[in-house]
Description:
This protein has 1499 residues and is α/β, with parallel strands linked by helices. Helices cover 28% and strands 13% of the residues. The strands form 8 sheets. The protein has an 11-stranded mixed beta sheet, covered by helices on one side. The longest helix is centred in the N-terminal third of the chain and has 72 residues, at 237-308. It starts with a helix and ends in a 5-residue tail after the last helix.
Amino acid sequence: MMQSVKHKHRGDEEVVKELCLANGVSFENIEQVSKVSSLEIFFSGFPRMVGLSFFPRLCQFTILGQNIKHIEGLECCPLLRELWVVQCHLTGISGLQNCLQLEKLYLYDNQICEIANLESQINLEVLWLNNNCITQIKGLNTLQNLKELNLADNNIEKIGHSLDPNVSLQNLNLSGNKISSFKELTLLARLPRLRELALKDPTSTSNPVCLLCNYATHVLYHIPGLQRLDTYDGLSKQAKEAAESTVMKKTMYYNMRVRTAQRNLAEVRLSLMERKKTMLQLPGECIRTLNHTLKSLEGELSKVPASCKKSACTLEDGSTHLVDGSIDRSDQTTDISRDPAVEHKIHSKIDALRERLVPWMRRLNEIEAWYERSLTQATNMMEYTVQFLLMELESVGNIRLEEGCCTDPWFTSCCDLLHSRFSHSDFKVRNIAGIKINKVIRIHNNALRQRFEDKLHTLLASEESISSHRNYRRRLEYLFYIADPEKNSEREEILCILEEGFKTTEQNKALETEGAIPLSNSLSVAEQPRIEHALRQASQEDSKHSTDTNHFRHGQIIVSKVFVGHSVPIREGDPLDRSRYPNAFSVYRNVDTKHRTAPSEERTNSTKTHTGPECSPRQRQWFVFDHELVLPAYIIYFEYITTGDQEQPHSKGIDETPSNDIILDSEVLNMEPMLKPQPRLLSLDDKILLNVARANVLSQITVLNLHGNSLRKLKEISRLTALRHLTISFNEFTHLDDISHMPNLKFLDASHNRLVTLEGLRLGQLQELDLRWNELTKVGEDTAVLKTHTPALLKLDTRFNPWIGSKTVRMTILGRLTTLTHLDDMMVAEEEAAYAVLMAAGSKINQAFLLAHSSTNRDRPRSLSLLSTAQLLCPLSPAPQGLTRELELDWSAKITVLNLDSQKISKLINLNKLVNLRWASFNDNDISKVEGLDSCLKLEELSLNNNNISTLNGLSKLHLLNKLSVDGNQLSSLDASALDRLPNLSFMSVENNCISSVHGIKRVHSLLELYIGNNQISTSRDIYYLKELTNLIILDLYGNPFVEKLENYRIYVVFHLPSLKALDGVAVEVTECESAKDMFGGRLTPDMVAEKLGHSNYSDITYLSLQSSSIRMVDLSPADLFCSLCSVNLDHNNLTSFSGLIYLPNIKALCLNYNHIESILPRRKAALTNRQMLLSKVHSSGYGQQSPSKGKGETGPLEPLMGSLEVLHLSHNGISNMANLQLSRLTNLKALFLQGNEISQVEGLEGLHQLRELVLDRNRIKALADNSFTAQNVLLELHLAENRIRELNHLDPLIELRKLFLGMNKLQDITELDKLEVLPSLTELSLIGNPVAKNSLYRAAMVLRLSQLLVLDEVMVTLEERTRAELFSADPSTCFQCPGASLPTTVINLPGVLSLMPRSIPLRGMTISGGLQNFMHGQDNLLSNVDEAQPHSINKYKKHRHGNAVRNGQADNTFRHVQRTGSNLPTTGLLLDGNRVVITYPSQEQDSRFPIGGKPPPM
């Protein structure tokens, strides 16, 4: 022993010498060099930590590459601040208890498995434990000064909350571990000073989580203070903002989807209610019939004792007011009173009726139970859906749960798989014939899939055999897993499997479960534990129905992709421990099913279901040891189908043939005695009351039965002051206000009526009240009446009423009516009553409430949660009974979060001191007003769901509010006065209210999300109010009336709100946007008019101008709205027809220049375009109204349209065929403008008998046909300038034509002008620009031939000119010098005739008065300009041709279009007024015939 000790000492001495040598310290003088503060030893020579006592002032010690297993010998180094023990084979952390000054500890590249024994190192700032064998982060709780932690290259899978105390941590390296969940990274947000984070350092392998999409986005959102992530240094502000934006959008998206799921549940509930109502009809009618007969018999029976008191032969005399033909009541009562046998029969029949009521009441209970089961199942499915969506959100899309449909191949494969694994023989004993698959969800978990594939590749790589690589797919199975029903945490287990996969063997052992994952290829084997558990529970609750399939009807199963690998059978007696099967990946046992049927007994009624083991692989149960080899792939929700199809209690429907129960009812109802028909009382007076009650005076009546009389009023009943028992069942009462002030009434049966309220009931002594089978809905209001006016009530029956919130009816009644001993035929227990009273007691916001339900958090947690901030930061807790601690003076000012959900608060009070409140929730209370928040100016989120709020007044001062939720209240409108003052509001939810318009929200421009479903919005005009919300991206209008009424609702909204990304819970697709543009682009609707004009007083609109508005269709329906509209200007649009304009009743002027008009109505084509097919659905668009085109034979005249239209502008529309326009249908048209088109033939005017003016300038007309003007015998003005006319034929019908404009055509032959002589009324003619106008004889010839002509080529025809023309006609040599001369340049004087001008004088709006005398006196002035007159007019005309101007001017148009209707007098040209001649010519400044600025004239 001493030898070994000495040897050890000599060995330690050598180690110390080596240490001294390595650090340049003399071993001989080691005791004198105690001031050494730093030592280091590398690679060898230091196998043990010895000799450190010689260095008490040691501050830094570095050991590298030694074979040290434990840290020791540091007890004498209390000043040590930095320790390096690297690559030294350490297996644990120890020996640091006295190193209290230690600040840096480096223990990397060792074999440490656990972080321990660091509790005393409170000053530690740097800790490196990378490249060890650590699997769990722990043991760091006391290191609050730790700033740098390196745990890279370990086996850590979870972060957990172990780092929460390390609030000073700034640098964290977790690279090279096995962290795979974003949830773990979320926990790092609790480190407020974290600046550098490494999860995939270049020197290490990446964590699985780093391979997931949106990894960087997730980290940057949750840890915005990061300055370095992995290799990204100096993270930019833009990157963090992008992460914020991405998360915000995802949160909005998933919030929308969660709301959609909740809304779907509400729809399912409503559907189940309707179905339940239908199912209750038959039992209800049967019960009503049985009850009616029962109460009638009881009424007759109650009369027997009263009549027996009198003589058997004595009857009460008196007449009653009965319906004609009815039988006297006294007659039928007499027989009963005299015959005891009849009385016995009545008792027997009453008993039989009561027995028949039992199965029908049982049926009601079955229907109610079915409803509750169905609703529970739907609720569970919704909750699963919500949890799935939250899982997707938290994983930032790396977990996705895809619901399948019948068109998905994988959905069909899953269904086939489950059907193939269903064995009828296994379930025959359960009376199950098959399964119905309700839903299949495919699981996309990127992390689990990557883990499964990596593990599989590793295993395959380790196997040497090539054949194993080829055959590994044979060892892949799809097996079933069902959660353990004994744990009562099925949902949590399933969610955990979907997110993290199956538990490890160690985790299963810790939970005292089997050490392997149980799986099966058989549905019956997998389902057996769940079915047995459900039946055991059912037997404990109800032994009669313990085998009912309803207890386990609905199931869910996880289908997993499993690599079973090398699998061996289980050895009986051996535990499921991997150590027992070292070379196996899994073990299995074969299952022999009981009650197997013969092949001939296999079911044939299920088409898709295979018969199980008889035609499938052997049924087995597997146990897989490695959880990484089991990949959850699908979840299948299914239900069992019974052989008798007994799963639904409504199999006996109301429309089916009567069942056995109905036959039995009929037999009982036909039993003797059969009551004679009851006479119906028409009124109640004293005689009737006395006769019915068998009394002599009213004061003696104590019992009164008015059953089955169809009564609605009981005005005389209050006089029966002695009445104690009153029956008014089976009548028509809706109110009970007549039954009041009856001091002795103790029993009232008002069942089977139509009561909608109890208001007016006042019975102070009432003890029993039967209200079954009525129409009461508002339990709160009705119980308030009973509480106030029936204080002695003991028994109350309210069953079979359509109560709102039926689940809380009993508690509400018991909470208010504290005197009740029986409710709904059930005794009230003391505990139940006390709990109800406690629940009914209202709460007030006081100091205790504020302390119990508040928090002082400064920042919203960075959590991907859809809870409100108040719910997230301050979970609900019971209110304290009193204060247990002293409060600071400003305690209320520190509160930032307040959660008072479900506290039965009726008023918002005592909030004035919460000046820093930022997030508040008051859901599920009884608040009726938004008040008391004026001091909470920092409020950002406010939730007031499910209260009684009717107005939003009280929010106007909350300028920082960005989220507002007021679902389930009584709002009828949105108060603009309050909402306009919320400039930061981005989220608003007002679902399930009574809002009829969104007008009040149109100026909340910051709004991003708006949920306003299930309200009363009924007009599409409200969409125009939302158009101002240019930032709106999510909108939910589902459940509003106009959603159903408006055709093509969805694309209508998408078109008008192009910024929308989602509508009614469904993302807006690109195809929808395209369809919306195609259908509603350019559609003129009343809503568009209201938007443009700023009001919707359509009946006040007389003039409408919407030029250049890209209008393609007019849908101003109903047209009667625009009864005052007279003038419409739609120039420069995209119309192809008059569309909905044809329905406007009083339109007189219509301007459609610069469109693409083809016809009044859309022309039918062989194949319609998609857009036309859409438009054809809109009646008011005019599509589908076109009459059939002429085909096999000529059709009759078309029906006239637009009878009020007088002026029509269709210039520059590209019209080539006038007949296709169908202008003849506009029978009242007086002015038609078609200039600037492509018309080559004048036609289609046969029906325009009233036409006064026709403009066809700038077309392609070459000639006039014989039918061009057949109906225009009152036409006054015709414009044909700038065409290609060579001949002037067929003008005969124009006998009233005053003006004809033929300028810039191709008239060459002067003899062609002779044809104008057929126009006897022509006063103005223009031929400027024609070749014929160059002829020197042209003007004189025209003046001579047209005796009525006053103006030619815009120049007035004077008397002198006409005289000269006549002279020339008589003697040409006296007037012309040569053949080429036009007129002499000198003045010609003739005896007796005034001097004449050498040339015609152009008129430019001149007014000449005083007759020819004044004209002569002004001769000198005129002569100065006469030389330039003719050329000037021609140049001016050409100028207008290039400018596309129209000939007529503003003043002329006003006169022509409006004031001249129906007149035969010329409206322009020469007008005679006594001796005054007024010649007016229009200016040529505009192309439109409308006056002043292109607008139509006032009509």
